[in-house]
């Protein structure tokens, strides 16, 4: 008897596996002590994927190319494999493998599916681009950028797709053109709204700022010149390379009309093409050869101090530029003849520049110090901020936005009760965090995926503000308004017309034209639900009759735990098209992987989501999750202890009554006491 009890007591929580499988593109979760890493990590993981490829639903799952391999919290590692068919990537279909600090594969998620489609295009990328001519904004400084050939699954039907970005400063989007039918299948927005020395200045809140990193020197042009090429008769179209090794596609501006109709031009072969081909970047200095991104550096000379921060090269250079209340044609560095930037004249941009420059540095510092994430892309890419942006559109003027196609953060001029939109730390971090999401999970900006994208930016803004502004507050963007009223509330989202429960979800039909007319499917509105979840796990509260205990009684420690989970969730677990239900499952997975011995954290996350109507609350001892603790739960626990039951993570957590990391006879005693009480 004692020997049996010893075996029961020594049964480890982490030795039991969950092998729940959902086939053909539905999310697959596995967790527990799945596989021990031996020798080379990638090789070992591929061996495990080969063993379970049938369960994953794809015979070549172990051969998919490795998209990303990064270190996470502690000694953990995360590998992402991209599904491909005939070397063509399948949009949003990945296998994500997570290795814990003990060198074990602790969890896996997959949404791969079988694909049956011809991967030989029927139309060229030039043909695909031709149907997008009307997608370009009416501006010479707009262009098309060919990204890649991919497979995209829509309404359960696969399509061979040309991914082509239509790019302008204010609105960019990704157009998915069917390579067999030459029709636009779908589109996604790519613009998401909302030797150094030191100097000082005053920000937009009239607060003094010291240790402002700036640059002194002559005309500062490290980016090279972009010159419009002359006509090459044999090839009138060409590519530019950017910092990521991708191509910009454009055409020469020196063709003639010849015998073509009005609105058309003649190439060297005598063929006519539309004038939209002439919408081509002009001459100017660009960052890493970014097209048409012009920098006016004529006034920069010795003794001129520019808002160019190179103080932390591992985090990437920060460039703070001024649009002088105009559009993008005359961008220039925010600069001064002294190291003091205290001029109040908004035209001179000093206060706006000080705010954006200082808040951007603090954002980068937070991501690096707390999460080891460098620059806007995680590997030290430069960060560009444009202040005092003015547009005939009040939406853009009294707003801030991130352009994923350009990797540029832009802050509106304000007006009508608003300061310039770089006045708030949480807004500056919000826009930067859209870049963080674009370079990690890539959550598309529509419907529930877009609401999580928007919420992640809100949440990261709160974290940074809390670190650098005495704990921050539970509102977003209050420093932008002279009234001090925030734009959103984490405590009570309905006070700002946002739902805090799925029963109040704002349902809108996603209509791509125009994209703004329905808030991209309610991304700003429905972000209130995950925002409320963040508040609950940090602060704790009763919400819709469900009690949520905070991670820790100390709010600073509670905030650190939440920051780690949210960062990992977005960086390593989420996929492009995930919805709230999948988002919940993946956050639980992230929590479990990061804190395997803190099952109370798991319960906090689960109950917070449940309080918003997504998933069920955890009831200790309710192993079968039927919201009742009874003898049936004890029977399951006995089978788990004996090794006869292949338990899920939730079952393991619900059965570990005393939270000691194992399910044993003491936990059964605990369940009996629950029933008796």
Account of the 3D structure:
The chain is of the alpha+beta class. Among the domains are: 13-110, no CATH class; 119-189 and 229-280, Nuclear Transport Factor 2, Chain: A (Roll), CATH 3.10.450.40; 190-226 and 287-439, Roll (Elastase, domain 1), CATH 3.10.170.10; 620-676, Dockerin domain (Type 1 dockerin domain, Orthogonal Bundle). The chain is built from 16 helices and 31 strands. The strands form nine sheets. Strands 10, 20, 21, 22, 25, 26 and 27 form a seven-stranded mixed sheet that branches. The chain has a five-stranded antiparallel sheet with strand order 1-5-4-3-2, sandwiched between helices. A hairpin with a 5-residue loop joins β2 and β3. α5 packs across α7, α8 runs antiparallel to α11 and α12 runs antiparallel to α13 (599-611). The protein is globular, with a radius of gyration of 27 Å. Residues 1-23, 218-242, 247-255 and 275-285 have low confidence and may be disordered.
Sheet of most strands: 7 strands, mixed
Number of E-type strands: 31
- List low-pLDDT spans: 1-23, 218-242, 247-255, 275-285
Based on secondary structure, the structural category is alpha+beta
Shape-level CATH architecture of the domain at 190-226 and 287-439: Roll
Q: If you average the pLDDT, what whole number results?
A: 80
What distance lies between the first and last C-alpha atoms, to the nearest angstrom? Answer: 28 Å
CATH topology-level fold name of the domain at 190-226 and 287-439: Elastase, domain 1
- What is the molecular shape? globular
Radius of gyration over all CA atoms, rounded: 27 Å
Share of β-strand residues: 15-25%
Helix content: 25-40%
Report the top-level CATH class of the domain at 190-226 and 287-439: Alpha Beta
Count, helices: 16
């Amino acid at each position: 008897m004692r020997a049996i009890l010893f075996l029961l007591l020594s049964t480890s929580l982490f030795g039991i596996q969950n092998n729940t499988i959902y086939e053909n593109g539905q999310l697959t979760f596995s967790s527990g002590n799945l596989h021990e890493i031996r020798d080379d990590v990638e090789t070992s993981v591929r061996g495990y994927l080969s063993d379970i490829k049938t369960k994953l639903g794809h015979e070549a799952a172990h051969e998919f190319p490795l998209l990303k391999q990064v270190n996470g919290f502690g000694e953990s590692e995360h590998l992402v494999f991209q599904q491909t068919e005939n070397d063509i990537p399948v949009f949003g279909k990945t296998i994500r493998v997570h290795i814990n600090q003990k060198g074990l594969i602790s969890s896996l998620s997959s949404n791969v599916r079988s694909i049956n489609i011809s991967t030989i295009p029927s139309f060229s990328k030039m043909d695909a681009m031709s149907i997008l001519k009307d997608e370009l904004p009416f501006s010479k400084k707009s262009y098309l950028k060919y990204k890649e050939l991919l497979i995209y699954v829509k309404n359960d039907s696969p399509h061979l797709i040309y991914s082509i970005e239509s790019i302008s400063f204010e609105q960019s989007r990704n157009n998915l053109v069917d390579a067999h039918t030459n029709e636009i299948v779908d589109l996604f927005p790519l613009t998401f709204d909302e030797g150094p020395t030191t100097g000082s200045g005053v920000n937009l809140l009239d607060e003094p700022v010291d240790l402002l990193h700036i640059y002194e020197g002559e005309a500062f042009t490290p980016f090279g010149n972009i010159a419009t090429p002359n006509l090459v008769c044999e090839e009138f179209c060409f590519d530019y390379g950017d910092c990521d090794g991708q191509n910009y596609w454009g055409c020469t501006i020196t063709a003639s009309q010849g015998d073509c109709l009005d609105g058309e031009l003649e190439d060297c072969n005598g063929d006519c093409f539309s004038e939209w081909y002439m919408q081509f970047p002009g001459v100017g200095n660009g960052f890493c050869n970014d097209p048409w991104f012009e920098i006016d550096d004529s006034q920069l000379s010795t003794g001129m101090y520019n808002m160019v921060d190179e103080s932390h090269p591992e985090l990437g250079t920060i460039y703070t530029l001024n649009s002088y209340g105009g559009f993008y044609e005359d961008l220039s560095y925010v600069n001064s003849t002294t190291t003091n930037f205290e001029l109040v004249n908004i035209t001179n941009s000093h206060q706006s520049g000080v705010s954006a420059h200082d808040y951007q540095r603090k954002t980068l510092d937070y991501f690096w110090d707390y999460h080891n994430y460098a620059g806007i892309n995680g590997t030290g890419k430069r960060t560009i901020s444009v202040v005092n942006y003015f547009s005939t559109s009040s939406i853009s003027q009294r707003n801030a936005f991130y352009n994923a196609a350009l990797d540029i953060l832009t802050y509106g001029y304000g007006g009508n009760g608003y300061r310039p939109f770089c006045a708030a730390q949480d807004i500056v971090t919000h826009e930067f965090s859209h870049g963080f999401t674009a370079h990690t999970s890539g959550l598309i900006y529509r419907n529930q995926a877009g609401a999580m994208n928007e919420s992640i930016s809100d949440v990261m803004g709160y974290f940074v503000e809390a670190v650098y502004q005495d704990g921050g507050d539970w509102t977003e963007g209050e420093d932008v308004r002279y009234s001090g009223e925030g734009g959103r509330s984490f405590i009570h989202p309905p006070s700002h017309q946002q739902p805090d429960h799925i029963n109040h979800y704002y349902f809108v039909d996603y209509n791509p034209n125009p994209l703004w007319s329905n808030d991209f499917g309610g991304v700003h509105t429905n972000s209130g639900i995950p925002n409320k979840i963040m508040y609950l796990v940090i602060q704790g509260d009763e919400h819709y009759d469900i009690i949520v205990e905070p991670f820790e009684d100390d709010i600073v420690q509670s905030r650190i735990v939440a920051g780690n989970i949210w960062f990992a969730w977005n960086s390593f677990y989420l996929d492009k098209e995930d919805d709230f239900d999948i988002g919940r499952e993946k956050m639980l997975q992230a929590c479990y992987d990061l804190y395997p011995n803190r099952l109370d954290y798991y319960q906090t996350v689960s109950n917070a989501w449940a309080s918003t109507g997504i998933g069920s609350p955890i009831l200790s001892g309710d192993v079968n999750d039927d919201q009742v603790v009874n003898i049936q739960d004890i029977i399951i626990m006995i089978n788990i202890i004996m090794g006869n039951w292949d338990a899920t993570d939730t079952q393991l957590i619900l059965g570990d009554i005393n939270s000691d990391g194992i399910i044993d006879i003491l936990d059964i005693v605990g369940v009996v006491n629950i029933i008796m009480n």
